[in-house]
Specification:
By secondary structure, this protein is an alpha/beta fold. The protein contains 12 helices and 17 strands. The protein has helices at 38-41, 50-60, 73-84, 97-114, 135-139, 144-147, 165-170, 195-208, 278-291, 296-314, 342-353, 375-391; strands at residues 17-21, 24-27, 32-35, 90-94, 122-126, 157-160, 176-182, 184-185, 191-192, 211-215, 239-242, 253-257, 322-328, 331-336, 355-356, 358-360, 364-367.
Length: 398
């Protein structure tokens, strides 16, 4: 057997997109797909959004990259704009979500080092978490499928059940640096942190001198109908990793922090060759032009409510397959019953009904449409989903 030129670490399906337009993708032979996967919550503005396309093209023709050895008017402008929408005072640009998480881990540890407490280096994280694929990110999760074969992993992490505040508090000791948690778990099953849980973590950080590190790589940037998912809880973090929607398809991420939390991140402590280059920042500015326009986030919230209501109305019609809806805004999960299997159902929708979704843990189908969907797209999605449920053969059926 000869290995493929692309390292075979993905079980790639037969969908081979060559063009996108709005909320649709088109394959090599003209096949059309309704895209409610959005590049796993990345294509926040859909495909080929004219403002984003023009911003990238104009910047590419002007200046793409110079490295971070020089001043960055583009980076400074985008950083200021993001900071002004959030809790943060400062940020570091990365190329991806997992790099943003790495920066968040380093920032948290460096904070305690700067305070003269280098032994406070352990981050308490949570079962079923997904923080990315780097060594630091897989060390921060207890999922065997992420970790197997990559040992020894990095020390400095402890694990508690998600949404179990008491269990998390029991792990606090003299080595604790803080908590790192997805405000809404994505890959783990579209499970939202409860108000008691998220607020309780914030309260514990305040009481014990710890840092609250949020991973909003998937749930941030307008996905829930607010700019940041933490806004639903009435709290603010100390550090936060973001990516995906930040560039709406252009590789970009960021680690946000308060001035206090970032006190240890001084010259020489971190870096990135590509992070926040002019081309990435042009994309980031264009995304904010659209997202921060009056009514945009209200539209996301309204479409989220419309989609949830339609799903809840549809579920009883396919009782053998569907169990319940979870999530917030346009980050929704359709929990399947044990009689169905999420990955095979996602494949069935894709291959037989031209509908793209994403499987997640806990037997959940992730529904992550572009944030620009309209009522008609919701209706089309529900029709395709219903048709798919009607024609789906349960595993084990003759």
């Amino acid at each position: 057997m000869t290995i493929t030129a692309l390292m075979p670490v993905y079980p790639r399906c037969d969908v081979r997109p060559v063009r996108g337009e709005g909320v649709y993708l088109y394959g090599e032979h003209g096949e059309r797909y309704l895209d409610f996967a959005a590049g796993i919550a990345v294509n926040a503005l859909g495909h080929g959004h004219p403002h984003l396309v023009k911003a990238i093209a104009d910047q590419a023709a002007t200046l793409m990259h110079v490295s971070n050895l020089y001043g960055s008017p583009q980076g400074e402008a985008l950083a200021r704009r993001i900071v002004d929408t959030s809790f943060a005072d400062t940020l570091f640009f990365t190329n991806s979500g997992t790099e943003a998480v790495e920066c968040a881990i380093k920032t948290a540890r460096r904070y305690h080092h700067a305070n003269g407490n280098p032994d406070r280096h352990t981050l308490i994280t949570f079962n079923n978490a997904f923080h990315g694929r780097t060594m630091g990110a897989i060390s921060a999760t207890n999922q065997p499928k992420m970790r197997n074969g990559f040992e020894p992993l990095l020390p400095g992490f402890a694990y508690a059940p998600f949404n179990d505040l008491a269990a998390a508090l029991e792990l606090i000791d003299d080595h604790s640096a803080g908590f790192m948690v997805e405000t809404i778990q994505g890959e783990g099953g579209v499970s939202a942190g409860t108000s008691e849980f998220i607020r309780g973590l914030r309260r514990a950080c305040d009481e014990h001198g710890l840092l609250l590190v949020l991973d909003e790589v998937q749930c941030g940037y307008g996905r829930t109908g607010r700019m940041w998912a933490y806004e639903h809880y009435g709290i603010t973090p100390d550090i936060m990793a973001v990516a995906k929607g930040i560039g709406a398809g252009f590789p970009l991420g960021a680690c946000l922090a308060t001035e206090e939390a970032a006190k240890g991140m001084v010259i020489g402590t971190h870096g990135s060759t590509y992070g926040g280059n002019p081309l990435a920042c042009a994309a980031g500015m264009a995304v904010l032009d659209v997202m921060l326009a009056p009514g945009f986030l209200d539209h996301v919230a309204a479409m989220g409510e419309r989609l949830r209501a339609a799903l809840e109305q549809m579920i009883p019609n396919h009782d053998p397959i569907f169990d319940s809806v979870r999530g917030t805004g346009l980050m929704l999960g359709l929990k399947l019953k044990d009689s169905a299997e999420a990955r095979s159902f996602v494949a069935h929708l894709r291959d037989h009904h031209g509908l793209l979704t994403v499987a997640a843990g806990e037997n959940v189908v992730r529904i992550l449409p572009p944030l620009v969907i309209e009522e008609a797209h919701v209706g089309e999605f529900i029709q395709k989903l219903s048709d798919g449920a009607r024609t789906y053969a349960m595993p084990g059926d003759e």
